[in-house]
Hints:
5 strands; five-stranded mixed beta sheet; globular; 35% helix; alpha/beta
Amino acid sequence: MVKPVLLFGYGNLSRGDDALGPLLLEFVESHLDLDNIDILSDFQLQIEHALDLENRALVLFVDASVSCAKAFDFAELSPARDKSYSTHALNPSAVLAVYQDVKKQTPPPCFLLSIRAQQFELGSGLSLDAEVCLTQASQFAALLLNNPALDFWRRQATSCKEESHA
């Protein structure tokens, strides 16, 4: 049976701060009740992941990002075609677009939690800054996952957007 919430963290545990998505999943697995949460992890998003969105009430993608001004960003996603020439390593919005094309329906509400990252060298561990950002993002993810209501998540996304423009 599919659980209503999907938490999808992606990144490479062997590439420094790229591990932030999978590490947040480890936090959730050890600290939260998973009765209504499915957890999925991979190195990168691929076209096949569109089918993982089926029958979900909410989806939270988690990834490392070099473009975060603060510890993390949180935003609602919309379907958007990926402009790359390949179906490998899609962005979350492209996964939503694939879902829409394949299923001929609007994808479930999906959000992206981006965690500030700096270094991606093969074989390196997390940077000190990434460790701090991961702690803050993990606490925020726990807040979201303990309140799995679309209106609550949208209010949080609006608040994060307003904070980034302040």
